[in-house]
Design a protein that fits this description.
Helix content: 40-55%
Distance between the termini: 55 Å
Structural class: mainly alpha
Number of helices: 6
Oligomer: single chain
Number of strands: 0
Radius of gyration: 24 Å
Strand content: under 5%
């Protein structure tokens, strides 16, 4: 039963949700105080970033420069393609390019619109 006196059995398991406090209290009872207070170790290691500081700097410098001939402006996909072509990174998605440029506020650095 939850705090309101309702049982969670009324809902299918895929719909029933638990709050963090419910999960923690269950872990306290089942596994002890240390388990309830500390997080479980991750089963998978954290993902390693595909782009380092040097590659970020090169990507920002590329974005601040003139776009290739025939292009009015840089697009995220164009930046990703050129970064791979220039071997700045072995592979990169347009979404990763977006995250890098957003993180570094590149529009404030070079003052040009994308």
């Amino acid at each position: 039963m939850d705090r309101d006196g309702r049982t969670r059995k009324l809902l299918p398991p895929s719909v029933a949700t638990e709050t963090q406090s419910q999960i923690s209290s269950e872990r306290l009872v089942k596994e002890g105080i240390e388990s309830a207070l500390n997080r479980k170790p991750s089963k998978t290691p954290p993902r390693q970033s595909i782009i380092d500081g040097e590659a970020e700097a090169k990507l920002i410098a590329l974005r601040c420069g003139e776009p290739p001939a025939g292009q009015a402006r840089w697009t995220l996909r164009l930046l990703a393609d050129i970064a791979v072509e220039l071997e700045i990174v072995p592979a990169i998605s347009h979404e990763t390019v977006r995250q890098v440029l957003k993180k570094t506020n590149s529009n404030l650095i070079c003052g040009r619109c994308m």
